[in-house]
Prior knowledge:
Layout: H1 2-7, H2 16-29, E1 32-34, E2 38-43, E3 54-55, E4 57-67, E5 72-80, E6 83-84, H3 87-90, E7 101-110, H4 111-118, H5 121-127, E8 131-132, E9 135-146, E10 152-160, E11 168-179, E12 183-191, H6 195-211, E13 222-232, E14 235-244
Antiparallel strand pairs: 1-4, 2-4, 3-6, 4-5, 5-7, 7-14, 8-9, 9-10, 10-11, 11-12, 13-14
Amino acid sequence: MTSFVLGNLPFPGQGGDQVVSKAVSSAIAALFKRTGKLEANVRAEPVAKLLQGSVDGFDFIGHSMLMYNGLRIKAMELFVQAVSIDFGAIFKGQVQIKQPTQASLRVVLTEEDLTTSFNTPFVVEKLQQMQFEGKSLYFSDTEMVLNDDKTIELTSQIRVGSTSASPNFISLTARVEVFNRTKLAFVDVTCGGTDQDIALGKAIVEHVNALLDLDSFALDGTQLRIDKVRMRNKELVFYGVAHINQFPTKK
């Protein structure tokens, strides 16, 4: 009976695990504006468990992912624990989980990803919420460089106030650390330039650190917890856990 049902799924030549794998891949791809290669592999042994919605887990690997807010990700890997799903929802193009689960997580960002992300309206608008000496700030040409000594260099052209004659060139170097698994922060910051440039740079770091709450970047229905951050080969790599209360959907 099981082989008859799975063998007559509305996807010729595919088993239940392949159907669910494709549905998961499509559902995750829909969360992003653009993606490169995506692959999800659902594990269920025996496959008949899928009829009751039982999944041993699934692995997801994605490359070259662009979020709708403009943030870029070079690679993302999720390794999801056992979970119960609504198998009937799969045929509606939906992925619905019946109880919370969690996944180990690995995310890779390049220099280009970071630079592009810091120049998106999504980030620029958040940066411009701060004021310096009672005046609004206007950011442009922000660039991020990952150095061989494990530090990050940030440079930006910043006008203080709308009537500023010329922008301040801000250059600062810092390390990235994670605190309480929930926040990222620039630490051991050094700034160059005039006294005003240094004061402005330090004020910007304080503002950016206040924004780097992981929950503000998580997809709906998920929580991110980062255990470790590594920098190597001009890439920033995050290792952690995603707590999934419901399968996220596009806002």
